[in-house]
Design goal:
264 residues; Rossmann fold; Elongation Factor Tu (Ef-tu), domain 3; seven-stranded mixed β-sheet; six-stranded antiparallel β-barrel
């Protein structure tokens, strides 16, 4: 995989400079004047600077791991895609301009370029579209990214990538079915390298399809993380070569390193 960009030591504050709503998703644009520009596929550990806790005792939350959505060239900005699915993500989604996030990153290994003669093919599901957006920015013109969502509200996130081909589970937008239906149609033509991120069942279907069509693939896996730098062993996953810590050896892995993508 690609060389990683190393994170500065310790947590640092990143001021929220804009908040955008895209259907069920929130994009937070943050100023990070001291951090390096990340590689596509790397991630950050995020928390808010205030009210990072819940319940009567305000029990602290653990920081949450998020792939970077964008880091526009010529700016000192980081963009993150948030969906409110629990107390931590709810608090992050509530952040407004001039609020501060506490961040650690960039962490982990990102995507690497396809071999000569192969075209990148991006496949994402839900909030898993995030690392594909920055990858599309880096590699420029690609075949249509293939994006899958549950419904029309979430499919509004497709506007964050250029020229997407969309599938929805309920048929409200684009193809009625799974994004892997679109992928199978593309894999009938050889010469791709697949880059995918999304929920584990989607990634397992992508892994199996790419094995069937003998197509190389790089998968950005999701896993619960408490620290982000290998100390807690909370994100251990099985590979053909044994167990690895996803935060230090991933989150991007070659699909052929995996026997399967395990459900959480």
């Amino acid at each position: 995989m690609s060389d990683r960009v190393l994170a500065p030591f310790g947590r640092r504050a990143a001021r929220v400079i804009a908040r955008e709503q895209h259907g069920a998703y929130v994009v937070l644009r943050c100023a990070d004047p001291v951090g390096p520009r990340p590689r596509a596929g790397q991630f950050y550990m995020l928390a808010t600077a205030t009210r990072w806790g819940g319940g009567e005792a305000e029990r602290p939350f653990l920081p949450r791991a998020f792939s970077v959505l964008r880091a526009p060239v010529g700016t000192r900005e980081l963009h993150f895609l948030i969906e409110d699915v629990g107390p931590g993500t709810k608090r992050l989604a509530e952040a407004r301009p001039d609020d501060a996030l506490m961040i650690v990153g960039p962490l982990g290994n990102g995507f690497s370029a396809p071999d000569p003669g192969r075209a990148p093919l991006l496949v994402g599901g839900g909030v898993g579209i995030a690392p594909l957006a920055i990858w599309q920015d880096e590699i420029g013109c690609t075949p249509q990214p293939l994006l899958g969502f549950r419904d029309r509200e979430r499919a509004q996130g497709a506007t964050l990538l250029r020229d997407p081909n969309v599938a929805t589970d309920d048929g409200s937008v684009g193809h009625h079915g799974f994004v892997t239906d679109l992928l199978r149609a593309e894999l009938h033509e050889a010469g791709h390298t697949v880059y995918a991120c999304g929920p584990p069942p989607m990634l397992e279907a992508v892994r199996m399809l790419c094995a069937e069509y003998e197509t190389p693939a790089q998968l950005a896996l999701e896993s619960g993380m408490a620290c982000g730098f290998g100390a807690c062993f909370g994100c251990v996953v099985a590979t053909r070569d044994g167990y690895i810590r996803l935060c230090t050896d991933g989150p991007v892995l070659a699909a052929d390193r995996l026997e399967a993508v395990a459900a959480h």
